[in-house]
Amino acid sequence: MTMIPAPYLxxxxxxxxxxxxxxxxxxxxxxxxxCVGEFRHDDCPLTLGLQRLTMAEAAAAGARxxxxxxxxxxxxxxxxxxxxxLAALEAGMNVASGLHQRLRDVxxxxxxxxxxxxxxFDVRDPPADLVVGSGRxxxxxxxxxxxxxxxxxxxxxxxxxxxxxxxxxxxxxxxxTGQTGILIAGAGVPVDAVxxxxxxxxxEQLAPARDDDGWDVIEGQGSLFHPSFAGVxxxxxxxAQPEAIVxxxxxxxxxxxxxxxxxxxxxxECLELNLHMxxxxxxxxxxxxxxxxxxxxxxxxxxxxxxETALAFDLPCTDPMRFGLDTIMDELLxxxxxxxATTASR
Length: 346
Hints:
Layout: E1 8-13, H1 22-30, E2 35-40, H2 55-60, E3 65-68, H3 79-91, E4 94-97, H4 107-115, E5 120-122, E6 141-147, H5 154-167, E7 172-175, H6 179-185, H7 199-206, E8 215-218, H8 230-240, E9 244-249, H9 267-278, E10 286-292, H10 299-313, E11 317-318, H11 320-323, H12 326-332
Parallel strand pairs: 1-2, 1-3, 3-4, 4-5, 6-8, 6-9, 7-8, 9-10, 10-11
Helix pairs in contact: 1-6, 3-4, 7-8
């Protein structure tokens, strides 16, 4: 992917859904040094803790690109967002977006970018040279994060796992599969924009064979239990050919994201189905841990839930942003292939 010029102005617009600004939040967390501020309207109650700037103020402060770091159902551009993107272009900033609707398909934005000698970056463009997956065994260690739902922390966990593996003296690479991860890493495959027949092949290309005893940590997407996104999750499992999986879950989630009234799966049920599906291309796959997003809980309650979950499933359980990943690293790197590849709730 062509490098998107930094520094960035992060867009919140009129968002009221804290999960919906996950792309802007991800950049503010993992590339904060590249962010000069945030843009939000008066009726937006959310903040990333960055300086609130107008388009003109951000350009004067050195921002080179407005990142439309929000997500909505269907990934469309509302009228307000288009007007704000136009304002950014007129102020002298490039515009980047990870939405399904492409910037290049909005004539007013294309015209403004051309007039101002600026660029539009559509992050959700898959590579043109994808092939169908083969499922043939390939060398190397690969870990895939999976989830009980979408937006439960798979990207955060994946990035934390890379750092934890490196801290143990091994090579590790983050393989981004979503708009936020791609913006953070500067490369990747937007797997939810890939034609279904090519999903597994895209992941085989994203994480090819390696012989340095290092790890590819592949960012998961969606959930096998989400009716809207299970197809993407399945293709990821088969293309990743993971040696290990880590299950991610948000215990504060009341229902599947975007589907009120639909319950989340149990952790044991979710682990078993992911392992079962993964065995099509990786017969020896095993679960090595559970990661909880406990940001809505106090620390004592979060610690207690992690301990209880670890005991219930005989697997390390942690919040990687709060408590680190030492227990999961011990499990992942122990080379204990004798441990059963199934996990059941007690």
